[in-house]
């Protein structure tokens, strides 16, 4: 269920180091099979990298349990939180993960800015991956001394405007209240699931017990791109395609899905309009 951004970098690393990439299986509901995950873990496991919330299925993974199991064999855990941070409160200390990353624009901030959290002892042991700007304390032809955290990893001119925008977005979310957002979005997700499940020709992809605000679906005989185009004409915005999760599409034996993404600014009336639009499309293809 991983986004390509949590697949490709590890493939590059495997090419560079000879490491082996292993994939945790998921079941038909879109949940990780923890028993199979446990079988993959051993003393040779170095890194476990997992999505917190699937951008395609909406599955909320048990990241605390996944982290604990990885730490038992001495592995480092990195969590992709791009689809979690805007929907509910995230406590990296409670999870216990070693790294946690998210994109700013998923949190209603500008593009080109994001956050990487890392445990201090690991970051201090790591070398910078880029050079330039304030990532140094001193430079001579004989030796360069690196700056303290976090500056060691922030080479070049900072994205100042992006950081300001991200800060404002975070303050905005906290003003609304993440707990209130989570409650409202969960109610709307349940409503959306109920309404769309009543459409006989429609099948929801991703039915895990713990889900966040995403409903992906397919309709027999109608390509998701056609669905997206026709809904757009009615002023309804959905995402159609593989959602940068092509291995997931292969797992479910489908080329793509249509995805309705729910946020705190959406309403039940908009969900009703989506259902009406889908029924109209189905009639057109009959």
Description of the molecule:
The chain is built from ten helices and ten strands. The strands form three sheets. It has a four-stranded mixed beta sheet. It folds into two domains: 4-127 and 156-176, Aspartate Aminotransferase, domain 2, CATH 3.40.640; 178-285, Aspartate Aminotransferase, domain 1. Helix 7 packs parallel to helix 10. The radius of gyration is 21 Å and the shape is globular. By secondary structure, it is an alpha+beta fold. The mean pLDDT is 96.
What labels describe this entry?
globular; Aspartate Aminotransferase, domain 2; Aspartate Aminotransferase, domain 1; 10 helices; four-stranded mixed beta sheet; alpha+beta; 286 residues; 38% helix
In terms of per-residue confidence, which ranges show pLDDT below 50 for 5 or more consecutive residues? Answer: none
How would you describe the oligomerization state of the chains in this entry?
single chain
Rg over CA atoms, rounded to whole Å, is 21 Å
CATH architecture of the largest domain: 3-Layer(aba) Sandwich
Main sheet overview? 4 strands, mixed
Q: Tally the helices: what do you get?
A: 10
Gross geometry:
globular
CATH class of the largest domain: Alpha Beta
Structural class: alpha+beta
Short description:
This protein is 38% helix and 16% strand. The chain is built from ten helices and ten strands.
Question: What is the topological layout?
Answer:
Elements: H1 8-17, H2 34-40, E1 47-51, H3 63-71, E2 76-80, H4 92-95, E3 99-103, E4 114-118, H5 120-125, E5 136-139, E6 144-146, H6 160-176, H7 178-197, E7 202-205, E8 214-219, H8 224-233, E9 239-241, H9 246-252, E10 257-261, H10 268-285
Parallel strand pairs: 1-2, 2-3
Antiparallel strand pairs: 3-4, 5-6, 7-8, 8-10, 9-10
Helix pairs in contact: 7-10
């Amino acid at each position: 269920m991983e986004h390509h951004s949590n697949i490709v970098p590890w493939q590059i690393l495997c090419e560079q180091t000879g490491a082996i990439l292993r994939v945790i299986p998921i079941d038909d509901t879109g949940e990780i099979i923890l028993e199979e995950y446990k079988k993959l873990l051993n003393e040779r496991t170095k890194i476990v990298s997992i999505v917190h919330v699937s951008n395609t299925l909406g599955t909320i993974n048990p990241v605390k349990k996944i982290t604990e199991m990885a730490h038992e064999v001495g592995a480092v855990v990195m969590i992709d939180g791009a689809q979690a941070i805007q929907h509910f409160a995230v406590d990296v200390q409670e999870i216990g993960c070693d790294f946690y990353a998210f994109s700013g624009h998923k949190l209603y901030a500008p593009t080109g800015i994001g956050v990487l959290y890392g445990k201090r002892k690991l970051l201090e042991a790591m070398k910078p991956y880029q050079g330039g700007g304030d990532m140094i304390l001193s430079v001579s032809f004989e030796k360069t001394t690196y700056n303290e955290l976090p500056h060691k990893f922030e080479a070049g001119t900072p994205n100042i405007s992006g950081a300001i925008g991200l800060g404002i977005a975070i303050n905005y979310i906290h003003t609304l209240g993440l707990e209130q957002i989570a409650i409202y979005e969960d109610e709307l997700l349940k409503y959306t699931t109920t309404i769309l499940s009543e459409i006989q020709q429609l099948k929801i992809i991703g039915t895990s017990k713990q889900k966040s605000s995403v409903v992906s679906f397919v309709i027999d005989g109608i390509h998701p791109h056609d669905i997206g185009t026709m809904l757009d004409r009615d002023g309804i915005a959905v995402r159609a395609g593989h959602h940068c999760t092509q291995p997931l599409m292969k797992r479910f034996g489908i080329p793509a899905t249509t995805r309705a993404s729910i946020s705190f600014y959406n309403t039940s009336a908009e969900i009703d309009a989506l259902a009406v639009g889908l029924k109209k499309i189905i009639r057109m293809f009959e």
